[in-house]
Amino acid sequence: MSRRLRFRRREILLLPEKRAGGSLSRRLLLRALLVFAFAGGVAHTAFAQTDPLPSWNDGAVKKSITDFVARVTTQGGPDFVPPAERIATFDNDGTLWPEQPIYFQGAFAFDRVKAIAPKNPAWKTQQPFKAVLENDMKTLFASGEKGLVAIAVATHAGMPVEEFTKTVLDWISTARHPRFNRPYTDLVYQPMQELLAYLRANGFKTFIVSGGGIEFMRPWTEKVYGIPPEQVVGSSGVVKFQIGADGKPVLMKEAKVEFIDDGPGKPVGINRFIGRRPILAFGNSDGDLQMLQYTMAGTGPRLALYVHHDDAEREYAYDRNSHIGKLDKGLDEARAKSWPVISMKRDWKAIFPFQR
Amino acid sequence: MSRRLRFRRREILLLPEKRAGGSLSRRLLLRALLVFAFAGGVAHTAFAQTDPLPSWNDGAVKKSITDFVARVTTQGGPDFVPPAERIATFDNDGTLWPEQPIYFQGAFAFDRVKAIAPKNPAWKTQQPFKAVLENDMKTLFASGEKGLVAIAVATHAGMPVEEFTKTVLDWISTARHPRFNRPYTDLVYQPMQELLAYLRANGFKTFIVSGGGIEFMRPWTEKVYGIPPEQVVGSSGVVKFQIGADGKPVLMKEAKVEFIDDGPGKPVGINRFIGRRPILAFGNSDGDLQMLQYTMAGTGPRLALYVHHDDAEREYAYDRNSHIGKLDKGLDEARAKSWPVISMKRDWKAIFPFQR
């Protein structure tokens, strides 16, 4: 029961008979009206209590979401969308959880390099591994795409899918974010968790569409976001079917990129995995721009949303000047096309679950 | 109400008082017992009425399915599987609908060649198109993979995904099967429709995993099988994101194979699209063998099923000697490993919905 409701009940209980004045019947009428008001209060308060987005501050952005959901779920309304077509796609890094100080999958890769370094003694003197082992990010990033691919291959390929899944689950249950000193999965954005649940409660199917590795995300997305593996779209390496020495079939991860689910790859990934154009899409960078464009280019009601990281105190503030890069066109287009831009500072009451 | 139930009620209503004999109380007791028997009859008949697989004849195969579903859905039982993990995958051609006299997608491609031939006058003298236009299947199949790829490219690429979808929907609503003279979607196997619905009613998620084209199946699978596009895995061509001349984003189908979801490609496709090993898989050819092997190699309860086409009268009979080919290893392995082999003749009361 809300504080307000409790207060109203107290008002009724403490109502001095004399304040009502007049005859008994008038007092009874007044009391009856108050009881009705009270009953109305219950209904109203019950609604307020179940605000599906309690970590979102009231305002234009929150209203754009709740209005959209109301429109597409109003049976017989002009904008009604059948549940099967209520597809909502979410970027992951920077949209559902942070992407600073580096993409969390990068942190995983560097931790894996350190974990398997004893089996690779040559890495002590061999770049880019030496840089990782010495936490020398400057040298590492100077090695460019070639260096990062070498690290990805060393940590993500040459093993069965199930073995990789196990290393991901081990890491995600033990590793801690350097600034917040908490498991990475504690850092999922509370308002986005509420939004995912709210959409699902309204018949939406929620998908992750991320530039991140599909095999890196799937082991934990169901537990953390309520999004099952088959609703996770991401970048992938080639996987090959083999019959192992024991006669058992095995899926091996190979050292070859298969699909980059980023930028123009996101609509392609959506078409490939979902086969239906989303009616709602949520991103935070240029890597999400084509997904948002593709979503908005369909017919009927649609909504594109854009997270702007502007809260250095509670999370991070980065706009055009980030090593994450790729933050120019998306934000400009979101503003130009009046897509709701979420200011984390203004629109989110809490950012992380532990801040509630 | 079943005929049997109606008959039992009549028996009760017509029961001559004198036949009951003895005192009133004895007659009342007998009547009460009959009413209980009657009530029992209702329950029993209600159960029989709601047999979820009425087009499956009783026998070992049907029992293997209902026993498996009972085991994995019995909460607290040793073989209980949480709903999220109840993944069931089905081949399409030859498993959910026929694949004779040719794969239906082949019939679509040939019809498309004929439809767009007026815009390609050179085809009158150019193979393999000439063969298609003259219904000369012998010459066509003699053109081998190269010829079939040329036809696939001419009919499946060089257009936006949405335009292709439209051609598929137009075709599937008008084309008719040469033998049965009915729309192809009338030819989905009734017992498989019942099985899909039965599994979904028991918390399974049903997927198609087909060597057929993903963009060919998705436009109609939801309406025909109750399987939404995001639960259809298939072969695919490369798709590219472009911004069209009108400034609108468009996904273009290119003349390049991306993924063949057949044979060893099926477990790879399952891993890519679903990210979870099925616990039940259903196929009918060597192209499904690795999917069945992969399904059975997991831990916990699992079921692989194999359709054997042995009913020339109601459908087709082909075993080792079919132009569809690839029917050797799958059937042998199914028999060797005691996977239930469905004899269409023995196990299916009806094959097509119109035969019920």
Can you describe this structure?
- Two copies of one chain form a homodimer.
- Chain A is α/β, with parallel strands linked by helices and 356 residues long.
- Chain A has helices at 3-14, 17-20, 24-49, 60-73, 104-116, 129-133, 137-142, 144-156, 161-174, 190-201, 214-225, 265-273, 289-296, 329-336, 344-347; strands spanning 87-90, 159-160, 205-213, 232-243, 249-259, 280-283, 303-308, 341-343.
- An eight-stranded mixed beta sheet of chain A has the order 2-5-4-3-1-6-7-8, with helices on both faces.
- In chain A, strand 6 (280-283), helix 13 (289-296) and strand 7 (303-308) form a beta-alpha-beta unit.
- The first copy, chain A, is globular.
- Chain A starts with a helix and ends in a 9-residue tail after the last helix.
- Chains A and B meet through helix 11, strand 4, helix 12 and helix 13 of A and helix 11, strand 4, helix 12 and helix 13 of B.
